[in-house]
Amino acid sequence: MLSRERSRNVLGVPSTIRRWDVRRGLPFDEDVFDVAYHSHFLTHVDKEQAPPVLRECWRVLKRGGTIRVVVPDLERIVHRYNDAVAAHERGEIEAPRRHEEAVDELFELIGVERVARKYDRKDALCCGLPLMFRDMARGEEIQAKNLDDAKGAGATAMTFLCPVCVRGLGSGAVERGMDIYMLSDLCRLALQEEIPEYTA
Predict the structure, then answer these.
(1) Strands 61-70 and 157-160
(2) pLDDT tens sequence across 28-71
(3) Domain containing residue 91
(4) Is residue 6 included in any domain, yes or no?
(5) Among candidate residues 55, 82, 111, the one where a domain is terminated
(6) Of the N and C termini of the chain, which has fewer Cβ atoms inside 10 Å?
(7) Half-sphere exposure (CA, 13 Å, Cβ side) for 70?
C-alpha cells in the first residue's frame, strides 16, 4: 500500500517514463539491454516474488550485461537506531530527534505506516506502568489516553520498543482490537521470519 505522498509521486511521473508492474514480467524482448538497474525497489517485493523479478532482469540483459541492485542497508539503519538509544541513555540533547528519525527510517524500510497521533513523537506519553507504583489512577489515565489516541488515529497495531511497554499497554491494545508488536519483531516479519506470540 502506498502512502498518499508516494501515490502522488507515482501519478506525477512524466509520460516519457513507463510505469509497469514488473511482477507481470518486463515488456521487453530478451537480450536487449547492457545494464539493468533498480534502487530501493526489491525491498518492496514479496520474498517469493523476488526471484521471478530478478530472472526477468537477467532475461532482458545482453550476454555479459550488468545487473545492479541497490537495497537499503538494514544493518546500518539498526546501528543508527542503537546509537540513538545509547545517546538517549547518555542524556544527549539531540538523542530524541535521532531516535525518531531512526524509528521512521526502520518503519519506512519495512513498510510500516506510522499514523499521526496527538500523543506521539515530542508529545508521546509513556506506557504508564512505572507511574502505577506511585499513583495507580494517574497511570491508568495515561494508558487510556495513549491507547484511545492510537485507536482513534486509525492504528491497527501498536509497536513497542521495550518489554515494559508491552506489559503496560499490550492488553489494552488487544482489548481495543489492535495487534501488538515489538519493533524488532516487525523487522523480523519484514524478513519473513517467525516471531514469538505475546500474551497481553
Answers:
(1) unpaired
(2) 999 999 999 888 888 778 778 888 999 999 999 999 999 998 88
(3) 73-111
(4) no
(5) 111
(6) N
(7) 5
Task: State how many domains the chain has.
Answer: 3
182 falls within a domain: yes
What are the CA-CA distances from residue 39 to residues 43, 112, 162 (Å)?
9, 19, 33
Q: How far apart are CA 190 and CA 151, in angstroms?
A: 23
Q: 124 and 182 share a domain?
A: yes
What is the DSSP track for the chain? ---HHHHHHHHTS-TTSPP--GGG--SS-SS-EEEEEEES-GGGS-GGGHHHHHHHHHHHEEEEEEEEEE---HHHHHHHHHHHHHHHHTT-TTHHHHHHHHHHHHHHHHT------SSSGGG----STGGGGT-HHHHHHHHHHHHHHHHHTT-SEEEESSHHHHHHHHHHHHHTT-EEEEHHHHHHHHTT--------
> Does one domain contain both 55 and 90?
no
- pTM, two decimal places: 0.64
